[in-house]
Write a structure and sequence with these properties.
It is built from twelve helices and four strands.
């Protein structure tokens, strides 16, 4: 078995590790996710002003976990609100292809995975939220039907796939909020699966469970028999919640430019994180290919060893037959004493040859078992390579989408700059016209005074003429 064990410097990434790598680009511990109205805003932690009370350093694990909990809670608020509004506007039963619904399940999956205790398996550490969800049937008897249905689905092979199926069935039953509240209220049971500062152990989990009540107004219908829930890569699509640069007009132009700049900076940061993740995955794929090549070479060596052992076993059989034949002939030609001595020696040699043959057969069986195990490991590695290549393609597609969004935001920023310049020119012209109108008003006031004086003079002259006339 030692020949089959991978070396410590040759990592063999699994699907869970790919998901974990994608999660590291989602949480963005250097950023804080906040909500401006109903939209997503991100601020870098280094730019946030400190309060008079000393705050913990950004490297503090408790501080990072608290920031992740706040980010996930805000993302859950946006996801649930967007799902309810879009579902009510759509006016029909939702299915698994509906994009806001897919994003909701991705956010819920990240919430349930936050702070999970790692369990060591044959392929490394595994973090699955299926364990906590199995507890619900003990707390709420109605959930036993969902758990039994999930276990009976033939296409599910991993705990992650079972957990995703459970969430979909609970949403169809309109009991997701009730089940989550019952689970969060039993923190003594959750402590077996979660760290003390995980989202499900803090008040953010209770807030999310309360928000889930609103999902009871929507109807959903899923067909999970043909859906591959095991190999899906759950990545949050932040672009669904970004602000639209054309949503405000007039006096809100400065705020619009600031929002677009924030979004542009966020997209660039997310683009950088995704690029780093793609490079990391590519390096892991290269390492897996090297490991695959090494295992192939070891398999070839084992095959050669098996062939050598088989040839040696045949040779031992021939020698044993030759020795028996020689002993038989020697026994006929010599006397009884010599015959007994030769027979004893032959039996001893035969016993040694038989033991050697048994040892060779035992070693051959061990080599055959090692070969079968190596072939099984090769198949598992090939499956992992295919899964990682699919995940890499999905990440590259998302990277292209983010680049297109970045170009669109740059274009909107340029349009906004042109609009600000035009407004500035219009404001200058309005000020000039205002000044001209003020000067005209002053002239009119002066003319009015002159006319009043002339009117008084004319009245005086008219009175004098009337007196002279009388």
């Amino acid at each position: 078995m030692s020949a089959l064990t991978p070396q410590s410097d040759m990592p063999t990434p699994t699907t869970d590790k790919i998901t974990q790598a994608a999660m590291e680009t989602i949480y963005l511990c250097k950023f804080r996710v906040s909500m401006d109205g109903e939209w997503l805003c991100l601020r870098e932690l280094d730019d946030i002003s400190l309060t008079p009370d000393p705050e913990p350093t950004h490297e503090d694990p408790n501080y990072l976990m608290a920031n992740e909990r706040m980010n996930l809670m805000n993302m859950a608020k946006l996801s649930i609100k967007g799902l309810i509004e879009s579902a009510l506007n759509l006016g029909r039963t939702l299915d698994s292809d509906y994009a806001p619904l897919q994003q909701f399940f991705v956010v819920m999956e990240h919430c349930l995975k936050h702070g999970l205790k790692a369990k060591k398996t044959f392929l490394g550490q595994n973090k699955s939220f299926w364990g906590p969800l199995e507890l619900v049937e003990k707390l709420v008897p109605e959930a036993a039907e969902i758990t039994a249905s999930v276990k009976d689905l033939p296409g599910l092979k991993t705990p992650v796939g079972r957990g995703r199926a459970w969430l979909r069935l609970a949403l169809m039953q309109k009991k997701l909020s009730e089940y989550m509240k019952a689970l969060i209220n039993r923190k003594d049971l959750l402590s077996e699966f979660y760290e003390p500062n995980a989202l499900m152990m803090e008040e953010e989990g209770a807030i999310i469970a309360g928000l889930l009540v609103g999902l009871n107004v929507i109807d959903a219908n899923f067909c999970m028999k043909g859906e591959d829930l095991d190999s899906q890569v759950g990545v949050i699509d932040f672009s669904m919640y970004l602000k639209d640069g054309n949503s405000t007009k007039g006096s809100e132009g400065d705020g619009q430019i600031t929002a677009i700049l924030d979004q542009k900076n966020y997209v660039e940061e997310l683009n950088r994180h995704l690029s780093a993740t793609v490079n990391n995955l590519q390096a892991k794929v290269d390492a897996l290919e090297k490991s695959n090549t090494k295992l192939t070479e070891e398999l070839a060596v084992a095959n050669n060893r098996i062939i050598t052992l088989q040839e040696e076993m045949e040779r031992v059989k021939e020698e044993s037959s030759y020795i028996l034949e020689s002993n038989r002939k020697v026994g006929v030609s010599k006397d009884r004493t010599a015959d007994g001595h030769a027979l004893t020696e032959a039996r001893k040699q035969l016993k040694e040859e038989t033991q050697l043959r048994l040892d060779v057969e035992k070693e051959l069986e061990m080599q055959i078992g090692m070969r079968q195990e190596m072939e099984l490991a090769m198949k598992m590695l090939e499956k992992d390579v295919c899964e990682k290549q699919d995940a890499l393609v999905a990440l590259r597609q998302q990277l292209d989408d983010l680049r297109a969004l970045k170009h669109e935001l740059s274009f909107k920023l340029q349009s906004s700059d042109m609009g600000v310049k035009q407004k500035s020119e219009l404001n200058s012209r309005l000020e000039e016209k205002t000044n001209q109108m003020a000067a005209t008003i002053k002239q009119l006031e002066q003319s009015e005074k002159d006319l009043v004086k002339q009117a008084k003079t004319l009245n005086s002259a008219a009175n004098k003429l009337m007196q002279k006339h009388h």
